[in-house]
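We close this part of the discussion by returning to an individual protein. Part of our work consisted of pairing the sequence of a single chain with a tokenised description of its backbone. No coordinates are needed to read the tokens, only the vocabulary itself. The amino acid sequence and the backbone structure tokens for this protein are reproduced below:
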Amino acid sequence: MVGILVKAFGDNMTGPVLELLSTAIEYDLCVLARKDGKEATLKVLDDYRTRFALPGATVRQITREVRLHSLWYFTTTYQLQQQVMRTDFGEFGQEIWRLTFQDYKDNAEFLWRLGDTLYEISKACNRVPLGFVQWANAYWKDPALLEKHPEFFDRLMEELRDEQSPGVSEHMRAQGITEPIYDARFYIKKFYYKKARPALVAGLTALRKKSRPEDKDVRDTTFNANCFAILADKGEAGVVENRFEFFRDVLVEAGLRDNAVQIEHIKALFAEPMTFEEYRQYRELIDECRRETIDGRFQSFSLAKDMIEAWQAAIREAQPQHTEAYR
């Protein structure tokens, strides 16, 4: 299209023709950015800027879109894909940070599209989904965006398979953020709970598929625990069947290893009715966990001792009649 316009109108285009040329340049360069990367494509843009006297606002818009599409460049070779697999090193992770927190941090629509792009790139590279941080920041800038993106619900449910970031940190408060926007559970509780509830209840017993057919599926403990945390926060900890087994098989690991559940969630479980025999099982398991912080599977978990002591205090307080009988 660029060549056709130049042939018809020459280099000195103005008005609607220049606008059409700008659209054609943007399209061509976004395609090029996916193949050749940001730096090479921006050099071509600079040549176009000089040749066609493109307005500054047009150049800035095209630059933004080129940078967005150039993220796909990191899927073109195995070596570049390693930067997608680990965003804590390399140009891919640095560019994500600049786009999200520096250059376009106040552009909610762009941040959402950035999240969509990172999500698709991560799928293409078969890695844990990216994009949630960008959607969270877009939401904080413009909460109405959630109404425009119904697909966000499915992505939140997918996000529950990973560890969450509960609460509002001091760093977030310094940025003016007052909601736990980096916790997928926050959105489900606030906007989608009624819709999500059946899936959350089913998620309490969900299994994680193993990669080889001969391997046995195992509990998806992080997902199980996140589903429970949401239900507990909504006052529905009692929907868990076989609560002691759930605590033993899911919440112990999730609470000590992944921080997927906090003490308030454990308190909600302990507050549910239990027999003295069940109480005894809890206490013995908590004692066993305490021993394993000394010489066992929890000895390397820095916060495990404090959490286990909090569990013991919580069950003693929640079940005073059994506590008295247990002595």
